[in-house]
Design brief:
The complex is a heterodimer of chains A (about 475) and B (about 475).
Chain A (H helix, E strand, L loop, with lengths): L6 E12 L24 H4 L10 H13 L3 E2 L5 E4 L9 E4 L6 E7 L5 E11 L3 E6 L7 E7 L6 E7 L6 H18 L11 E11 L9 E6 L2 H20 L7 E6 L4 E4 L1 H4 L7 E2 L10 H10 L4 H12 L5 H12 L3 H9 L4 H12 L3 H5 L3 H12 L5 H14 L4 H7 L7 H14 L1 H8 L5 H12 L6 H12 L1
Helix pairs in contact in A: 3-4, 7-8, 7-9, 8-10, 9-10, 9-12, 12-13, 15-17, 17-18
Chain B lengths: L8 H9 L5 H19 L2 E4 L1 H16 L11 E5 L26 H8 L3 E6 L33 H8 L5 E5 L6 H7 L2 E4 L20 E5 L2 H11 L29 E5 L8 H16 L3 E5 L7 H16 L19 H12 L2 H14 L5 H24 L2 E5 L15 H5 L6 H6 L3 E8 L5 E7 L5 H13 L9
Parallel strand pairs in B: 2-3, 2-4, 7-8, 7-9
Antiparallel strand pairs in B: 1-3, 4-6, 5-6, 5-10, 9-11, 10-11
Helix pairs in contact in B: 2-3, 9-11, 9-12
Classes of the chains: A alpha+beta (about 475), B alpha/beta (about 475).
Chain lengths: ~475, ~475
């Protein structure tokens, strides 16, 4: 193969999402992250002899919401057993949906309008968690292993995309958009760092213009969008280098090593796996009726794309690229309601968006608790000239820290009282009088000195002056 | 060897409820009888003496307080050792669980207790219910109380023997391919498999989940109906448990067979030993004499049942038994090094007997990539054919009649080295497991060797009531034991 070939990546993503049900998928144990090991367990989720699974209705409801949000057909489904021995697997088989998934044939639209097909979104149970204890922490060097079955039986939905993704940016956008959708459905908290959303990437490469897919590798252990991007980048480059040097790609599972920045073969573990799937005889088929499906579809709230569209229309006109980024950030953090409310209250939408994307986003947990009226009132003071931008930001910061309050009272308490126009004028005059040489140069056209005079006025007013008004005063005097 | 006569459960419970005898007396007597007599049979793996006495005292206290202790008040029940009993050894006849004490009770154990019944002890069984002679137990074989040179059948041979020996009027077994009915036939007691889903499987250690069903052993059809009525019902812990609340069968058990259409199923008779065939035909004639409309019927699809069963059951078993890996409970054999897989292998190699290993291998093979369609999927298609064949037969008949087992009880040791010969014991019982239908074995005289013959009454799903009526008539017209000598 010639070395001047242009290569194209072909990427499909498999996303596992834990569902935030109160209890596990097949038993009544608590579904919670971070508890003491092995406290949320019972005969069923530890796989004791004689125990049986019973499906959790709330988990089915969440799975259907995900299917509906991804435009899937929700259809009669069945559970199967995926058989393999592993100590974190309580029954040495995993109950999962195989040939008859609950949701199939959907799609997800990226913000740029590109649609990625969703092959299926099926239900399955999570495994327990193994901790290898040993000098280096590596599996091979472990002295022994501890198993925590708290996670065993936690409900998961696995969302499998079609191999429609062609770039790293699309892969990141897909994962990010999917995360937003999962959160919007209420089915998941979408926290990659806690493992409640886990992404595996199937990556292959092919010469641009070729129809057939190349041999793919599955990359595991991608714990952030950053890892996802880096790993795909690395893996595609590895495969291209291999092919260009006359080698062949072997279909295998590879492990992303975040610190080393490379993927390593895990094939040894995969080699002999024949999962011997067969229908799970302890469960009956799962076929949500039309009325239930209808309730789920009707109850689905606005998805991130819808909410971004609302913000765009609230802004009016087409947003700048900075504003587009702000819109994404605000919707991802669920702060769009605050922006909409402020706009409804008469605050300029661009201002509300900017403050939400910066000041509120910096403390998003607290911002989600913030009263929309207080946010709107603070911004109204800013847009009305009672507060400078700096002061407004400080007031918002104080409101977030205190968990709310009356912005006017907070501003007063912080000493932010707007300077009367005549007061500002006399301060500007004093500053000019104190710096005659600089003023002369400014009048002659040295614009760099605008910042000098603005800063001096601000200092003289202890930051109470509104920057735009200072500029106006300076311009008026400059003539 | 003549087993002691046993009061029926109906009689015993009535006496306890009326305050004529205490549950404690009944239980103490039963424990003493087992102590004195079980050395010959090895029906029990362990007795729940303390628990049984405490439960008996609770029944007596209820009676004293004027409360209803339930329809099984004070009746000792033998529990197959694959039923989980909280805090009490539950081994499934396997070395791999030789020290396992479940932290919970099977639903049937709870149900039994609420009805006033007393779990007297855990009975021997073929390991993980795989076998037809109770010789595959890791803890030694059980002998047939009718003749201790013979096997009691299996896999629920311990419970069958306990009832046949007069240790308890009632027993519980599990029936995956005939494991209640075949030992009932060989031991000369009544044994019944309910409709799949009628009795909760929660706490029954799984062999083949789509086939397993818990059912009663008794000395009379009426007693079997009594215990079935107690056990049947919906259990939210078992997804395959039927939602409907069944009508009790006891009220109609003596209603006779006038007008009932009985199909004498040639495929469940032909091929059996001549003395067994003779008894089944005699039973059919007796039913006709009692007013039933008896006709012969052929259901050739039953001939494929055994092959389908010996793929489906091992396939499910290979998965169900994967959990015995030494990680969480049961036997663990540590090996040099830190390799979990090596520990798994060593544990399973040491913990499972030959028949269990054989079936795990068969089942693993049947489910393997490239073989699934030819074996497991094909067996499921045959299973559907068998169900459809039943449906056709039941369009013309209310119940079917056949043999339970091809022969009377065979010699201990005679088939242990010939798995296929052992598997043939289930040929008449397997069709009902594949279809999920109820069936009952009723003693009907003896064979040429003087050992009991069982006649099997099969019924469509949920038709336990007419099935018991027919079984009761068969029982009442059975030749008395004068043939035995």
């Amino acid at each position: 193969m010639s070395t001047d070939t242009d290569w194209e990546m072909v990427i499909g993503l498999e996303v596992h999402s834990e569902l935030q049900t109160a209890t596990k998928l097949f038993c009544g144990c608590r579904n919670a992250f971070g508890d003491e090991p092995n406290v949320n367990i019972c005969p069923t989720c530890v796989g004791l002899p004689g125990s049986l699974p019973v499906i959790n209705e709330q988990a089915v409801e969440f799975a259907m919401r995900i299917g509906a949000a991804l435009h899937c057909d929700i259809r009669p489904s069945e559970f199967s057993r995926k058989n393999y021995f592993y100590p974190d697997q309580a029954k040495d088989y995993q109950i999962s949906q195989y040939d008859l998934p609950l949701n199939a044939n959907g799609w997800l639209e990226l913000p740029d309008g590109f649609r990625v097909g969703v092959t299926r979104a099926h239900m399955e149970e999570d495994t327990g968690k193994l901790t290898h204890i040993g000098a280096s922490g590596r599996i091979n060097a472990a002295l022994h292993a501890l198993v925590d079955y708290n996670r065993s039986g936690v409900p998961l939905v696995e969302i499998v995309s079609e191999p429609d993704i062609r770039t790293v940016a699309q892969a990141r956008a897909y994962a990010s958009e999917l995360r937003g959708i999962l959160v919007a459905t209420g089915a998941s908290d979408g926290r990659m760092e806690e493992g409640s959303m886990r992404v595996d990437a199937n990556v292959s490469v092919r010469p641009v213009g070729t129809g057939a897919f190349g041999t793919r590798c599955e990359i595991k252990n991608l714990n952030s969008l950053r890892s996802l991007g880096r790993a795909i980048e690395y893996e595609a480059a590895r495969q291209i280098a291999l092919l260009e040097s006359g080698g062949t790609v072997i279909q295998e599972t590879r492990h992303w090593d975040e610190s080393a920045g490379r993927t390593d073969s895990m094939r040894s573990k995969e080699e002999a796996n024949d999962y011997r799937y067969f229908p799970e005889p302890d469960l009956v088929p799962l076929a949500p009726d039309a009325a239930w499906q209808e309730r789920v579809r009707a109850g689905l709230g606005a998805m991130p794309a819808d909410r971004r569209a609302v913000l765009v229309s609230v802004l009016g006109g087409s947003p700048s690229s900075a504003q587009t980024d702000q819109i994404h950030a605000v919707v991802d953090l669920g702060l769009d309601g605050l922006v909409n409310a402020a706009a409804d209250a008469g605050v300029p939408a661009g201002l509300a968006l900017a403050r939400a994307a910066n000041e509120l986003a910096a403390q998003s947990e607290a911002a989600l608790q913030l009263d929309a009226k207080a946010f709107a009132a603070a911004l109204a003071m800013e847009s009305g000239g009672q507060l400078s931008a700096t002061q407004s930001k400080a007031v918002l910061g104080a409101l977030l820290e205190r968990g709310g309050g009356d912005p006017a009272a907070v501003a007063k308490e912080m000493g932010f009282e707007a300077l009367a126009a005549d007061t500002l004028g006399s301060v500007v005059d004093e500053v000019i009088a104190a710096h005659p040489d600089e003023w002369a140069r400014f009048v002659e056209g040295d614009d760099k000195l605008r910042g000098f005079f603005t800063g001096a006025v601000m200092k003289a007013t202890s930051g109470k002056a509104d920057g735009s008004k200072v500029a106006a005063e300076l311009s008026r005097r400059r003539g | 060897m003549t087993p002691p006569p046993t009061a029926t459960a109906v009689t015993l419970a009535a006496g306890v409820r009326a305050g004529e005898r205490s549950a404690r007396e009944v239980v103490d007597a039963a424990l003493a009888t087992v102590d004195a007599g079980d050395g010959d049979y090895h029906a029990f793996l362990c007795l729940l003496a303390d628990e049984a006495r405490a439960e008996a005292d609770a029944v007596d206290a209820a009676v004293a307080a004027g409360k209803d202790p339930g329809p099984l008040a004070g009746v000792p029940v033998a529990l197959k050792d694959n039923l989980c009993t909280r805090g009490a050894l539950t081994t499934c006849g396997s070395k791999i669980l030789e020290n396992w004490h479940p932290p919970y009770n099977a639903t049937v154990v709870e149900t039994l207790r609420r009805a006033g019944g007393i779990g007297l002890g855990k009975t021997n069984m073929d390991e993980f219910a795989m076998g037809s002679s109770t010789e595959n137990s890791a803890f030694g074989a059980t002998r047939n109380p009718r003749d201790i040179t013979k096997v009691p059948g299996g896999s629920s041979g311990g419970s069958a023997a306990a009832v046949a020996a007069g240790f308890t009027p009632l027993g519980l077994g599990s029936d995956t391919g005939g494991s209640i009915r075949q030992p009932a036939a060989l031991c000369g007691v009544v044994g019944m498999k309910p409709t799949y889903g009628r009795v909760s499987r929660y706490g029954l250690v799984a062999f083949a989940s789509s086939l397993d069903q818990i059912g009663p052993f008794a000395t009379t059809v009426e007693d079997a109906a009594l215990l079935f009525d107690v056990l049947a019902g919906h259990d939210p812990l078992d997804s395959t448990s039927l939602p409907s609340v069944p009508e009790p069968t006891m009220p109609t058990v003596h209603d006779g067979v006038e007008g009932i259409r009985v199909g004498l199923c040639r495929d469940l008779v032909d091929g059996c030993a001549p003395d067994v065939v003779a008894r089944v035909r005699e039973a059919a004639d007796a039913l006709a004499g009692a007013g039933a409309k008896v006709e012969e019927v052929s259901v050739p699809e039953f001939g494929y049942g055994l092959s389908a069963y010996y793929l489906i059951a091992p396939a499910e078993a290979s998965s169900n038994l994967a959990r015995y890996d030494g990680v969480r409970y049961g036997l663990r054999v540590d090996v040099d090094g830190d390799d979990v897989a090596a520990m798994n292998t060593a544990t399973r190699t040491a913990g499972f007997g030959a028949e269990v290993k054989r079936r795990i291998m068969l089942g693993t093979y049947a489910l393997s990539a490239g073989y699934y369609d030819a074996y497991y999927a094909q067996a499921q298609r045959v299973r559907t054919l068998v169900m459809q064949a039943f449906d056709r037969a039941y369009a013309s008949f209310d119940v079917l009649l056949g043999a339970t087992a091809p022969t009377t009880a065979f010699d201990v040791g005679s088939k242990v080295d010939d798995p296929m010969a052992m598997y043939m014991n289930d040929v008449c019982t397997i069709p009902s497991n594949l279809s999920g239908h109820p069936a009952v074995s009723v003693p009907f005289g003896t064979g040429a060797d003087g050992l009991p013959v069982g006649v099997q009454v099969l019924a469509p799903a949920l038709q336990e009531a007419p099935m018991f009526r027919v079984a009761r008539v068969v029982e009442s017209l059975a030749p008395t034991s004068e043939v035995a000598s």
